[in-house]
What we know:
Blueprint: H1 7-21, H2 37-44, H3 49-55, E1 58-71, E2 74-80, E3 85-91, H4 92-95, H5 97-102, E4 111-120, E5 126-137, H6 153-158, H7 160-166, H8 168-190, E6 194-195, E7 201-202, E8 214-217, E9 222-226, H9 231-239, E10 244-252, E11 264-273, H10 277-296, E12 300-303, E13 306-309, E14 315-318, H11 319-327, H12 337-347, H13 356-368, E15 376-379, E16 391-392, E17 395-399, E18 401-406, E19 409-416, H14 421-436, H15 447-453, E20 460-466, H16 467-475
Parallel strand pairs: 3-5, 6-10, 14-15
Antiparallel strand pairs: 1-2, 1-4, 2-3, 4-5, 7-9, 8-9, 10-11, 11-20, 12-13, 15-18, 16-17, 18-19, 19-20
Helix pairs in contact: 7-8, 8-16, 11-13, 12-13, 14-15
Amino acid sequence: MSERKSDQDLARADKLRRLIEAGVDPFPRRAPRTHAVSEVVASLSGAAPEDLEARRLRVTVNGRILSVRLMGKAVFFHISDGCSKLQVYLRAEAVGPEAFERFRLFDIGDIVSVSGEVFRTRTGELTVLASGLGLLAKCLHPLPEKWHGLQDVELRYRRRHLDLIMNPEAVRVFRLRSAIVAHIRRFFDERGYLEVETPMMHAVPGGALARPFVTHHNALDLDLYLRIAPELYLKRLVVGGLEKVYEINRNFRNEGIDAEHNPEFTMLEFYEAYADHEDMMALTEVLLVGLSRSLLGRDELAYGGETISLRPPFRRLKFRQAMAEGSGLPPAAVDDRAEVVKRGEAIAPEKRPLTYGKALDVLFDKLVKPGLVQPTFILNPPREVSPLAKAAEDNPNEAARFELMIAGMEIANAFSELTDPQEQRRRFEEQVRERQKGDDESHPIDLDYIQALEYGLPPTGGEGIGIDRLTMLLAGRTTIREVILFPLLRPKE
Length: 493
C-alpha cells in the first residue's frame, strides 16, 4: 500500500504538471556540465574577488537545491553535488522574466543545471551569477527537516538516500570506506598478492563456526548455503600454486544483529604460502598504521571517548593471560571444561546448553573483550576452538593463531594454517560430534577440501579482517549500521 500523500507532495505534483504543460522536460536524458560543484569550490576557494572578476570564468554546474532565499526580482539558492555546496544568484534581468517566473515551480530537493559566471558576493561567498537555468529532476517529496528529520535513526538507515542528501558526515563516512578498500587493494597488489573471487554459494558451509543461510538451486534440486567465509576455497588456490591471494568478499551469517554484527558483511581474507601467523601479525601492523596515516593523516584515533594509538608494535597477550585479567579465570582453569561451561552458562543462561568452545567464547566476549581498547594481539587460544589452525609449537593444546582486538572489537583473526589432511579430517570429525551435543554451528565434513589438502598445502599464513569494523574504527562510529549503506532492517509494517 502506498503512503498517503501530504499537502506538500500534492503541491509538488501540481508543479510537475505545470512544468510539463509549459513544455519543460522535468527528467531530461542528458545534462552536460563543465565542472562539478566540488571542483569549482576546491579550485576557487582561495581566489580573491578581483581575480575572479579578471578571469570571468563561466561554468555549467549541476546539483541539488538545498536552500532558497527569495528577494523580489532576485533569488539566492544553494546547490550541492553531495560533496560541496555552491551559492547561485538568479536575477530576472539576467535569465529573462519567463525563466525567472518558472523558478517558482522549482523546490528544495530538485536537481538543476546552472550556467553562469563565478564571482564573490559582498559577504565573500563564492557564487555563480546565473545566465541559464534548467531542471534535471523534479523532487516530488519534501526533504527532511535539517535538525529534526535526520535525528530519526531508523529513517537514516531505512532511507539512506535521504541521509546522504541531508547529512554531509554520512557522505564522508562512506567515502572513507571506499578509500579504505582502495588502499587495501593497493597494499596487497604492491606486495604481489593476486585478487581472486570465490563462490558465494557453497554445497558445504565451512571456513568459520557460524549458522548459514540456506537456499535451493532448482535445476540441480540442490540445497546450497550462502558463504559464511571464503577460507577453504582460498586455501585450495594456494594448493594450486597461487602463493599469495586475497579476496574482499561478502559473507552471510544467519545470526543476531547488534552494534558489531550485521547478517551480511564484508571481509578481507588473504593467504600467503611459506608464511605463518607471526608474519601475518607484522603485515597487519603495517597495513593498519598505513591506513590511518594515509587516510587520516595520523596514527591516533578518537573512538568511544578513548584515544587509540595504532603505532606498532601492538601489545601481544596470551589467551590464558587475557582470560585471567578479564574474567578472573586462572590460566590453568581454562582447561577445566566443567568450570568453563558452568561460568559461561551463568553469564549467558539463554544459550544453554553450552559446549566448552562456546562457553569460552561467551566468557571472552562478555568479560575480556570490552577491556581490550588499545590494539592487542590475543595469542594461542585453545586448539579446540581453532579447528583450522596448526597447534602452537610450545603447546599442542593451543593454536598457532591470533585475534586482533581494538576498542573492544575483534578486528582480525589469523592462523598458521593446518596443512595435515589427516589431522584436518580428525578436527572436522570432532566438530560433527560437537554438533550432536547441541552445537548447531558445526557443519558436515567438507571432503573435497580434505582431498585438496592431500595434494599438499605448503606452510601458509592466513588472515581475515572485518572491513565494516575497520571502517567503524577509522570513522569513529560505534555501530556497524553507520558504516553499511543498507543494513538489514525489519520490514516496515
